[in-house]
Here is the input.
Amino acid sequence: MSVNGHMKNAITIDLEDYYHVTAFADRLSADEWASYKSRVEGNTERVLSRLAENNCHATFFVLGWVAEKYPQLIRRITEQNHEIACHSLQHRLVYQMTPAEFREDTCRAKQLLEDASGTPVRGYRAPSFSITPEIPWAFEVLAELGFTYDSSVFPVHHLNYGMPRAPRFPFRIDTASGPIVEFPLPTLEVAGVRAPIGGGAYLRLLPYRYTRWAIRFFNQEENHSACVYFHPWEIDPDQPRMQGSLTARLRHYIGLRGMEVKLVRLMQDFEFGPLGTLVEQFREAEYSAAVEV
Here is the structure.
């Protein structure tokens, strides 16, 4: 989507606390979350301040657990004209659930988010991008529950997630309950190899000038909007340290101190808006044939 001659991108925040992440799930159950000191409100307020300073509106993919514990935080996000979308109830991986469990988890989360925000929730993102080719029924469940778009597909090879054969750009998935627009996470492709850009650990670890170049290439050379993503805990280098494997700790903690500066520079270098707005604009445009994933 071009705005005033510039490509507009989406900025999305997966709203969860530091102890919700999949990397530490093998050491910490959801039943124990309440015993940890939450930092989600303070970190989210910092994110909201940075967005306001840069006249930027975003999509917050929120855990239903967070909405239930901190409904006032969801209201503040909504009052500042950001979009509320769903990030599951308790950060369970979709491919570890049955269709019935996924339906119950997502329905409950959606209701909590709509009650807290007072707005309809149309977008979904799976924890850790855990909608994979083995569970195509997930899109049917989302459409059945009234979702109109999803942003869970990472079109890459990865040990824990990914749909490497999925399109790199937005596409339509037809289900018996209606179509779902899929807005994949951004990648570059060189010689048939896809590389993730613009979010999470990739944004923290890679030099900012590379990320800026990659998003500009995505916009200008490939003529597509990028969906940048991050978590509020990623701008919190002083968060409590969790117990976990060396790999989990490296993935979670490296690059935290420089993340906030990178995010501010992104907001200054690119135009951003809520993902739902871009999805609606793509929906109105001509789509290619629906895609089997």
Q: What stands out?
A: The chain has a mean pLDDT of 91. The CA atoms of residues 106 and 200 lie 23 Å apart. The first strand starts at residue 2 and ends at 3.
